[in-house]
Fold this sequence. Notes:
Blueprint: E1 2-11, E2 14-24, E3 29-33, H1 40-47, E4 55-60, E5 63-64, H2 70-77, E6 80-84, H3 95-105, H4 110-123, H5 139-150, E7 157-161, H6 169-186, E8 189-194, H7 197-203, E9 206-211, E10 214-220, H8 221-227, H9 229-236, E11 247-255, H10 263-269, E12 275-285, E13 288-298, H11 299-311, E14 315-319
Parallel strand pairs: 3-8, 3-9, 6-7, 7-8
Antiparallel strand pairs: 1-2, 1-4, 4-5, 9-10, 11-13, 11-14, 12-13
Amino acid sequence: MIKIKNLNKSYDMDNILTDINLNISKGQIYGLMGQSGAGKSTLLRCINGLENFDSGELLVADTNLKHISKNDLRVFRKKIGMIFQDFALMSRRNVLENVALPMECWNYSPMEIKKKSEALLELVGILYKKNSMPSELSGGQKQRVAIARALSLNPEILLCDEATSALDPNTTDSILNLLSDINKEMGITIVLVTHEVDVIKNICDRAAIISKGRIVANNTVEDIFLKESEALYELIGKKILTIPKNHKIIKLSARNDDVQSNFIWELSTQNKTKLSIVSANIEQYKNKSFGHLYISVHDNEIESALKYCSSKKIDYELITENMMRE
Ligand SMILES: Nc1ncnc2c1ncn2[C@@H]1O[C@H](COP(=O)(O)OP(=O)(O)O)[C@@H](O)[C@H]1O
Ligand SMILES: [Mg+2]
């Protein structure tokens, strides 16, 4: 659905996006995470044809955006819906009129506009507010109106730029559930840009991390959280653990039912590794659970412990100093 190949973009000689390669399949919910200023919004604006780029290929919904004419661009942009952090509703129009706006621009008949707007407001659960003004709505309600408006021209792709960043955690969950339902029921491909890691964990299939205009990780959500720890730690910027003197930390990962309850016991009794558990957590991503167990092992025993992990086919990682910074 979206193919990006070696894309580069600069503003006034500054490279903003460097060598971006991404493939987003039809029907996916794709997450794009990165710190503020990383280039996320710029990439989204390239994808919806609002912004041009210097070099590379960009294919979106069967349209090559490299040398697109103005008229083709207008037709292309019908295929893309977009929602924003600040909702971007027209303050002088009521809810129904906001949803109707794109259809008015495309000269739909008044009958059709009314029917479609009401159906969409019903879909996003806010038809009862159809005569309200945006100023009379909560943040979550405003975003529902914006979603209805973004769907009004039957787009193939929905781009969400920090769509939940201004909402409280419960409202965020309800909007994410709505997006997930829309994805399932209508088969719309969703690209979700956010700086909030939890948003990605909750609904995305695959995700990329963008840092200073470059993609530094691109994987299934499961593997982003299990394997791309360095990129993730840079993004979250958290101190993870402190290492005892002359010790190293091994991070053991487990998925779903293969939480290796006996493994620690085996490592300590059979392999005679003196270890202490530093931290353990189980997290829920979509409908799966994953666990991480951090154990600390003395430098003298680290090699033997790692060998033992390998022999038992346990997913492990030696945590290095640079992942420990605040
Ligand atoms: N129109 C513009 N002109 C010049 N620089 C811009 C423009 N838009 C964005 N930038 C710069 O591009 C970088 C990436 O911005 P942006 O894509 O908005 O990041 P993000 O959405 O990840 O926060 C920033 O350094 C920003 O200052
Ligand atoms: Mg942005």
